[in-house]
Write a structure and sequence with these properties.
The protein is mainly alpha-helical. The protein folds into 3 domains: 100 residues, Fumarase C, Chain B, domain 1 (Orthogonal Bundle); 244 residues, Fumarase/aspartase (Central domain) (Fumarase C, Chain A, domain 2, Up-down Bundle); 97 residues, Orthogonal Bundle (Ribonucleotide Reductase Protein R1, domain 1), CATH 1.10.40. The chain has 19 helices and 6 strands. The chain has a two-stranded antiparallel ribbon. A two-stranded parallel sheet has the order 3-4. The protein has a two-stranded antiparallel ribbon with strand order 5-6. It is elongated, with a radius of gyration of 30 Å. Bound molecules: arginine. Arginine binds next to helix 7.
């Protein structure tokens, strides 16, 4: 019999039962639901709605249900509708009428909102740790290979020489911002809806502060109508996860390009590549491609929840049951991508010779020549123009800037002297960078140190 059967004279249609049930996926909220119920029961005992002995029996039965779930022995029935009714049914099977008291001063509306907030809280904690591991692996790569020079690109065209560590650190900065965004979402997620009832509050002198403390929330919600129907935290979480995936997708693209035969800057280990069933020679960077591809579903999940919530009248509507699958999917996607990335990055080898050869072509040192002319008191715009003309000549003659003789240089500007050759190597170009946050050896070292310290502190904070 359904909990709400009293008002009904007909049985639910089988098709409706399937359509209505969230138990196939909201069973993932089992532990959160039990945690919420424990706090609710303890609160009901504190305000004397339940006796101490009733409390003990209920809590003991919930511990058994929890164990059954962890061991994979909990039975989920479609007729349970959702995880809340499922646990109540299990409790009733164990304790009879006493179990029916548990739902005093509570509705599934404030219950599900609480469960989902607890889910997001734990997910944020796990994803932060995963992102920190990836950051730490990237920093290790920078420490080992960071001084290799490669062509920095704009428009995927060779632009200026940069250090490998500079490139990798850029991603460390992105993941750091992602972690900060997750912390920000957490603040608004830890507002407790429990005790709001169905929509207007409850008729009991409940102690919501007590439940807040028990469940590790920061605040108690201030408006029941808002509390049962607010899914902003789901939208924010999906949105941050979409940004995380965008970062993974860009990193994937860089690695895919570096892994092409044309670039050949890196080799991704066999353990994280796959082959072709037709072409025997193929070895493809599928881990990166999948991460890039899965970004699509995470963006889709964000669009999904934004659209579900758009135009919903206050307060709870069953539409909101659609808040879960996309959230679970985005969380699980970011988790597996982070785990794969962490191991895959560790297994990458850098093809030093190819990287260095790539810096010899493409006029990466053209800006250096322009800056050299500026040092001879030529205004930057003119220096830019002169350098452009020199480059054009070099392209026609198939030589690099290093290969051009002084006489020819002086045709473009009599101010060019022998010392021009001193500033044209990539190493010098990198050393000459002076601005804070630049690709110079010193600045990359300093930035790596700052990032490492931030990471160390955040690891110790989460202990
Ligand atoms: N399974 C429901 C959900 O996920 C729980 C809340 C049901 N509330 C209701 N009034 N029918 O949204």
């Amino acid at each position: 019999m359904k909990a709400w059967q009293g008002r009904f004279s007909e049985k639910t249609d089988v098709l409706m039962e399937v359509f209505n049930a969230s138990i196939p996926y909201d069973q993932k909220l089992c532990l959160e639901d039990i945690e919420g119920s424990v706090a609710h029961i303890q609160m009901l005992t504190k305000i004397r709605i339940l006796s101490e002995s009733e409390c003990d029996q209920l809590l003991e039965a919930l511990v058994q249900i929890k164990t059954d779930f962890i061991e994979g022995n909990l039975s989920f029935e479609l007729s349970d509708e959702d995880i809340h009714m499922c646990i109540e049914r299990q409790l009733t099977e164990k304790l009879g009428d006493l179990a029916k008291k548990m739902h005093t001063a509570r509705s599934r509306n404030d219950q599900v909102a609480t469960d989902l907030r607890l889910y997001v809280k734990y997910a944020i904690h796990r994803i932060k740790e995963e992102l920190k591991n990836v950051m730490s692996t990237l920093i290790k790569l920078t420490e080992q290979h960071g001084e290799l020079i490669l062509p920095g690109m704009t428009h995927l065209q060779k632009a200026q020489p940069i250090l490998l560590g500079f490139h990798l650190n850029a991603y460390v900065h992105m993941f750091k911002r992602d972690i900060e965004r997750l912390d920000d979402v957490l603040k608004r997620t830890l507002v407790l809806p429990l005790g709001s009832g169905a929509l207007s509050g409850t008729n009991y002198e409940t102690d919501r502060e007590f439940m807040k403390e028990k469940l590790g929330f920061l605040e108690v919600s201030g408006n029941a109508l808002d509390a049962v129907s607010d899914r902003d935290f789901v939208i924010e979480m999906n949105s941050v996860l979409a940004i995380v995936m965008m970062h993974y997708s860009r990193l994937s693209e860089d690695l895919i390009v570096w892994n092409t035969q044309a670039f050949d800057f890196i080799t991704i280990s066999d353990a994280f590549s796959t082959g072709s069933s037709l072409m025997p020679q193929k070895k493809n960077p599928d881990a990166c491609e999948l991460a890039r591809g899965k970004t699509g579903r995470v963006y889709g999940n964000l669009m999904n929840i934004l659209t579900v919530m758009k135009g919903l009248s206050l307060s709870y509507n069953k539409d909101m049951q659609e808040d879960k699958e996309g959230l679970f999917d985005s969380v699980e996607t970011v988790e597996i991508v982070s785990k794969v990335y962490n191991k895959m990055l560790e297994s990458i080898t850098f093809n030093v010779d190819n990287m260095s050869k790539a810096t010899e072509s493409g006029f990466l040192n053209a800006t250096e020549l322009a800056d050299y002319l500026v040092s001879k008191n030529i205004p930057f715009r003119d220096a830019h123009h002169i350098t452009g003309a020199v480059v054009k000549y070099c392209i026609d003659q198939s030589v690099g800037l290093m290969g051009l003789d002084l006489k020819t240089y002086q045709r473009y500007s009599p101010l060019i002297e022998m010392d021009v050759y001193d500033c044209l190597s990539c190493e010098v170009a990198i050393k000459n960078k002076k601005s804070y946050g630049s690709t110079s050896y010193l600045e990359v070292k300093a930035d790596t140190k700052r990032l490492g310290e931030w990471l160390f502190n955040s690891f110790t904070d989460s202990l």
